[in-house]
Amino acid sequence: MTKTYPGNFFEDFTLGQTLPHGTPRTLTEGDSSLYVALTGSRYPLHCSRPTAQSLGLQGQTIDDLLAFHIAFGKTVTDVSFNALANLGYADVRFVKPVFPGDTLRSESKVIGLKENSSGKNGNVYVRSTSYNQRGDEVLTWARWVMVHKRDPGAPAPEAQTPTLPDHVDVANLPIPPGLDTSDYDTAVTGSPHLWDDYQPGERIDHINGMTVDESDHTLATRLYQNNARLHFEEHMMKSSRFGRRLMYGGHVISICRALTFNGLANAIGIAAINSGAHSNPAFAGDTFYAYSEILDRLELPGRTDLGALRVRTVGVKNMESEKITSAKVEKDGKMRYHENVVLDLDYTVLIPRRR
Amino acid sequence: MTKTYPGNFFEDFTLGQTLPHGTPRTLTEGDSSLYVALTGSRYPLHCSRPTAQSLGLQGQTIDDLLAFHIAFGKTVTDVSFNALANLGYADVRFVKPVFPGDTLRSESKVIGLKENSSGKNGNVYVRSTSYNQRGDEVLTWARWVMVHKRDPGAPAPEAQTPTLPDHVDVANLPIPPGLDTSDYDTAVTGSPHLWDDYQPGERIDHINGMTVDESDHTLATRLYQNNARLHFEEHMMKSSRFGRRLMYGGHVISICRALTFNGLANAIGIAAINSGAHSNPAFAGDTFYAYSEILDRLELPGRTDLGALRVRTVGVKNMESEKITSAKVEKDGKMRYHENVVLDLDYTVLIPRRR
Amino acid sequence: MTKTYPGNFFEDFTLGQTLPHGTPRTLTEGDSSLYVALTGSRYPLHCSRPTAQSLGLQGQTIDDLLAFHIAFGKTVTDVSFNALANLGYADVRFVKPVFPGDTLRSESKVIGLKENSSGKNGNVYVRSTSYNQRGDEVLTWARWVMVHKRDPGAPAPEAQTPTLPDHVDVANLPIPPGLDTSDYDTAVTGSPHLWDDYQPGERIDHINGMTVDESDHTLATRLYQNNARLHFEEHMMKSSRFGRRLMYGGHVISICRALTFNGLANAIGIAAINSGAHSNPAFAGDTFYAYSEILDRLELPGRTDLGALRVRTVGVKNMESEKITSAKVEKDGKMRYHENVVLDLDYTVLIPRRR
To answer: Which residues, 6+ apart, have CB-to-CB distance to A10 below 8 Å?
Structure first.
């Protein structure tokens, strides 16, 4: 019996199956420092203890996306080690903040299966949840991936695709317990813009860009203990259709979120990701830019200190975001992503209101 | 109204103006680890708790230059986002040590303005100060930068240039409270040379060199949350006169300080930077070497355990430092920096005396 | 008198000499985070506090190899700064676990000297030991290096080579105090294989690979404060026979240990390294793969919860490990290492037994 774990193939998944994932991970201030070094992020809840405490939290929190990537990384071995493509995310909720010292473990449940017409692979839908050391749910998300079959002759399971919300409803948006922004001081970010100032339909080009090199994205992806081979093995990827290592899409999300600081500096936390698409592959050497559209401005039930914005952030490679008027362009009669667009992310942020 | 912040242009500055800078930052042991990984620094006050405690401090301190780069990084958005050149530093004083857990915020005051003859830009002089979470001043420095005008037709302000000391006087040299090197043991560095052993005029070639790659300098500069675009955007810099990303000059200072360990190992802390010039640009792939000249040996008032050395460290790229006899060479009748010299730093270090 | 330290040459060593090494180092959670980012390691004792505590330890430990590289790095200045080659290791014992907050200092004793027939260099054998802040021995190892003579005319010392064990006997294998794996749950790694499941002679190909870039190995080696010039100076190395920087062999060990997780996930700690050879040089851009052979399955005296496996891990560059049937191949009538084999490591790991 071989001791190595080849990951699950399409026919290994069954509807309703629970997959507990290995390697719980304690997050520390060291992870936070690295995350700043990898992304340049400046959101104050994650890098300033006094700021976090003045807003009712026990201390600075682990960046929402850092926690997500680590929680997500644990699922790769069992869910997407043999994936051809990461097809989408839905209903990602940042249920509770993660603090340095907390330990995350993740678990997934198979919520849908559908063999593709080729018979060579199929789509697997999972609901993944991450828990801290007290057993509290801290993160939950749905995603679906296209996974190879081990044996093309294996019979197809009954097709079943889950119903997933196209966005997280305002009633389900998690808010960190204790967070109170009644006395929020915009001096902490240097930006005057609060919830009240953003208008649905408004577009923001974030000006700054960021080039990502091989060591940057591989350090990030190793930090997340994500072991998907295509990010790490130049030798193997040379003979792939990309000809080289592919950047973990989550790192692109992190870079774009960091870039949005210039224009959305007071969007102090991410409450939910409604949907996301990695519309084109990203590689070392690419320079990323981003623009955002305000999709909605949401009042939070019972809160006058804090509101939410539903934001669409579009990540663009090797081209200033101002040059992209629309993420999708018509081609052969179809709307397709512009070839420089690498990310189309619909998410909801928390932002203080003007008093 | 646009939500992105384009930074200040020359005509946005007024004499006496105070600029509070955003994003306070809590420094942690994670930052210290990264700093060691980025520089290879071995100075013991910053990496050994028992050593720091045996010398009267509460624990290991954040490296002086790491604290400086983070404090400095906060000023970039408001002071030098639209700078063409960082012209100089003066009167940099490391007022109080920074410990893991301390939070820094920075503030600048405009102390001089002078439009250049081209009418397209001008020099801005600022005095920047960084404070910890208790409001104690921990770092203060003057610098001047050449900043673009937004509108070349904007009227020139009355020219005013500040008087700045050419070096920090011994009476103003900060010494960490509690530091007592009476029982200093040279075994902690493995080097026998103390204050008494250095002679003004003496030159030290530091032997070791360090190649810096793209991810190294960008990780460092992101860690400092310095968002100057020219360090990060390969796409933008391709069309600049450099043709590529420029290394943050502060990283060159850090690399050279780390190299000086071999020859100045017992120079346990930096008290002041008297002046500094980034004499040539530095790029990824460059290998840095350094030599130092002892400019002065200073007794500290009331101290027999500790003295100071005023040191000039010259950073050299892609050439062993021994091959440089003088940082400046005559060219067309003028003394100019040798084309391989990237740094000329005049600073004052603290070093135990022989008992 | 020059202040720089040129390191020791062959004639500077004398039998029985003790070399205390400089720069004690406090290890922190920041170092652990970086180690994960540099290697992708997932062994749970080092990254999960609850797991470590559930097995009787006070908290997560510093990765065995991270501690080793830092302890080892301190010896470079005095032992191998002028080395041509690192010839071998023996009797490496991980005597006590290292926890975040512990401070290591190292010391070496010269245990053998033998001038080579060329008269230009000689082999130096040292026994190095690293101590924590309480003076407890935490690591000990023997190694031998080939060191240049300063003066080829210097007389040869009497040749003396130490007797070193070819492996660490089971009676001498250190076990972390308090470690009790009676209630070990394989869910922490996701792998079901325990001590009982491995058979001497069994081979495991670890599937995953890892490409290492320049910033990866230089960040690691700087983190260890290892100042051997050949890892860092592209300028100098361009004219060497390698034409470029050489990767620190210890980083190759770390990468291979991280890769073995897939197949040896429950090998939660390294008790000893019996011997090791860096059989071919490794460079940035290389992709590493690994396979392991189980050399022996060892009962630990008085323990039914925990056993040991003696493992040979072979590191392979730029070729899937499955393609290597034997680390050595016949060439010109001699058995030599396959040109893609970069590491041949014989070590002993601790692994829970089935109850």
So the answer is: A113, A115, A121, A122, A124, A147, A148, A149, A150, A154
